[in-house]
Amino acid sequence: MHSETKAMDIKLPEIKELIKKDELDEAIEKLKQYIVLHPECNDEAYYLLGNAYRKTGDWQQALNHYMEAISRNPDSPAVTAKKMLMDILEFYNKDMYNQ
Q1: What distance in Å separates the CA atoms of residue 42 and residue 18, rounded to the nearest whole number?
Q2: How many domains would you assign to the chain?
Q3: Residue 66's domain spans which residues?
Q4: Of 9, 14, 68, 86, which residue is 20 to 30 A from 32 by alpha carbon distance?
């Protein structure tokens, strides 16, 4: 019961701080818990999860979560983040697009 109560206390501003401090594993875990507890949540949790995954170098997960954020809110900051991530991927994977 105690861990459930603790999970219910998760706040997005606290998770933003974890991401800023590069405490990414903890941020990702808390965001996953947040999303499970708040299935109706807006795009912000998915956008933050995308940011955390991007900082770990897991670009596929970052892209997946940015796409989910955009599907929930077409004006999400995830739109810009996704574009930047795609630009990076295209830069590193030029050969993939020239086949």
Answers
A1: 20
A2: 1
A3: 2-97
A4: 86
